[in-house]
Amino acid sequence: MTTATRALTREQVDAFERDGCLVGLPAFSEVEAAEWARAVRALCDTGIPEHPAPWNQKAHLLLPVLDEIVRDPRLTDRVADILGPDLLALSADLFVKPPRSSGRITWHQDVNYLDLEPFDMLTAWVALTPATPDNGGMQYGRGGHRGRLEHVEHPDETNILSRGQELAVEVADEDILEVTLRPGEVSFHHALTPHASGPNTTDGYRIGFAIRYASTSVAQQGGPTISARL
């Protein structure tokens, strides 16, 4: 990780390295966030019947405004202060919780199914609407990024994670950070940081856009190999 900073202070970089997360970063205006939320809501209302895969995954390929967020220097400059200047965007997914919905995300580490190393990766979670404990905002397990933890799979209809993956160990209450974000604010979490979120118990939408960035030093460690004939 780089030690030179541009958009983040030295104290913020140190806090991320200590806690595995950094919250409440003002990146975008509330007006911008409201416009992006309307575009996402329109997609939710109309859907994409011809699209074969869940459209919330890699949603920046469907909505140009989301692709612009992925590349926006107000975001990438901050990420570069932690990961270095050469970045890859591994994924960019929408997490939409409608009013009074039961969808939740169990405690997990992002690296569990990625098969990527080294772990120089972080997720930038952009709030397009308010994100609070009541509407299913993020929870972080501070300090849990210091090692890989065992996971189990318990899929159920309320779990937004496709395989129902969750930590096989409990996150201590004193380590849990409840995150509240205003529209346009961003939180960062390391790829090893345990995180979770609860259901939306309010009458409004909770919309977040999660972009997973990686240093270009990160490489795939498994999977099929491809050989070419010359």
Structural description of this entry:
The chain is of the alpha+beta class. The chain is built from four helices and 13 strands. It has helices at 10-19, 30-46, 64-71, 73-83; strands at residues 21-26, 87-97, 105-108, 116-117, 121-127, 138-141, 151-153, 165-167, 176-178, 185-190, 195-197, 206-215, 219-220. The strands form four sheets. A five-stranded antiparallel sheet has the order 1-10-5-12-2. It is globular and about 40 Å long. The protein starts with 9 loop residues before the first helix and ends in a 10-residue tail after the last strand.
Helix content: 10-25%
Poorly predicted ranges: 226-230
Q: On the 0-100 scale, what is the average pLDDT?
A: 90
Q: In what range is the share of β-strand residues?
A: 25-35%
Largest sheet: 5 strands, antiparallel
SSE topology string: HEHHHEEEEEEEEEEEE
SS elements, strand count: 13
> In one word, what is the shape?
globular
Helix segment tally: 4
Summarize the helices and strands and which ones pair or pack.
Elements: H1 10-19, E1 21-26, H2 30-46, H3 64-71, H4 73-83, E2 87-97, E3 105-108, E4 116-117, E5 121-127, E6 138-141, E7 151-153, E8 165-167, E9 176-178, E10 185-190, E11 195-197, E12 206-215, E13 219-220
Antiparallel strand pairs: 1-10, 2-12, 3-11, 4-13, 5-10, 5-12, 6-9, 6-11, 7-8
